[in-house]
Specification:
By secondary structure, the protein is α/β, with parallel strands linked by helices. It is 49% helix and 16% strand. Helix 7 crosses helix 8 and helix 10 crosses helix 12.
């Protein structure tokens, strides 16, 4: 099966009330772990790369590794998505290099500037048959090139969301309802503004909604990192039960990055600590890849509800 656009994936997710996991990729082991998990769960999956990941891995390598995954698992719907595209040029580069979906993140601009840059990307992408995700509202936190102070975070306004989608014709919309980027999402009790989500869905019943900054920051993985020499105190994410509820209330795409980083790092730290004499990368990257696979399977099966939806 060739790459698919997110448009068809989201139509099914909205009809059947489940979410599709969008997992950030940086290298071969992460791609293998994600797609192997999706294949075992018979789930659609979105592989997404930030502009930083593209700089690190190089766009041609990423595209060819994803092609290899498609050859191994031809029955699984896979989309290749640009996460947090910072400008038109980056979006165009990804479209021209075979990505099936792109995100233009104009949330750092004021409303009118966001509309203008999103519309420009949409016009080019749609001329090539490519879907576009946009963002309205500001999420706090740090992830790759995204860095927003908590004081600058801003919830999405449902009426503005309706106007934004009507004026830009974007295919999906990332909204801000209380999630944040990185490993330190909450200081107190984790809580999302499902009232805002409900109002957005009322005004945009046919628009797929996206949650960024939605890693659980799995406590066991944080503990394992710290046990083997890490220093990640007080890390706290969005609990699985809250994400599951979001998936049943109209969220079609849920982004996961931090949990995969923790899974890989925990296993690599463990391998180094248990046998410092080892220096073959396969020794520590094999369990790291397996940890990514287990983490993705858990998300697909227990949180997002996308098992057997391929």
């Amino acid at each position: 099966m060739p790459l698919v656009t997110t448009k068809k994936m989201f139509e099914k997710s909205m009809e059947e009330h489940f979410a599709i996991g969008a997992f950030n990729v940086n290298n071969m082991e992460i791609i293998q772990g994600i797609v192997d998990a999706a294949a075992e769960e018979s789930s659609p999956v979105i592989l997404q790369a930030s502009s930083s990941a593209i700089k690190y891995a190089r766009i041609g390598y990423l595209r060819k590794m994803v092609e290899a995954a498609l050859l191994e698992h031809p029955d699984i719907p896979v989309a290749l998505h640009l996460d947090h595209g910072p400008d038109f040029e980056t979006c165009k580069m990804c479209i021209d290099n075979g990505f099936s979906s792109v995100m233009i993140d104009g949330s750092k601009y004021d409303f009118e500037e966001n509309v203008a840059i999103t519309k420009k990307v949409v016009e080019y992408a749609h001329s090539k048959g490519i879907a576009v995700e946009a963002e309205l509202g500001k999420l706090a936190g740090i992830e790759d090139d995204v860095n927003v102070a908590a004081s600058d975070a801003m919830y999405t306004d449902p009426e503005q969301a309706r106007e934004f989608v009507e004026r830009t014709s974007c295919d999906s919309l990332a909204i801000a309802i209380g999630t944040s980027h990185g490993a330190y999402k909450f200081k107190g009790e984790a809580k999302l503004r499902f009232d805002i989500l409900q109002k957005v869905k009322e005004k945009l019943p046919n628009t797929p909604i996206v949650l960024h900054g939605a890693s659980t920051v799995i406590p066991e993985l944080v503990e394992m990192c710290n046990e083997y020499g890490g220093n990640i105190p007080g890390a706290k994410g969005v609990p699985d039960e809250i994400l599951h509820e979001a998936s049943t209330l109209g969220v079609s795409k849920i982004n996961v990055d931090t949990d995969l980083r923790l899974a890989m790092t925990a296993e690599i730290r463990k391998a180094f600590a248990e046998d410092p004499s080892k220096f073959d990368p396969r020794y520590y990257l094999t369990p790291a890849r397996d940890a990514v696979k287990r983490t993705v399977q858990h998300k697909i099966h227990d949180v997002f509800g996308s098992s057997n939806k391929a």
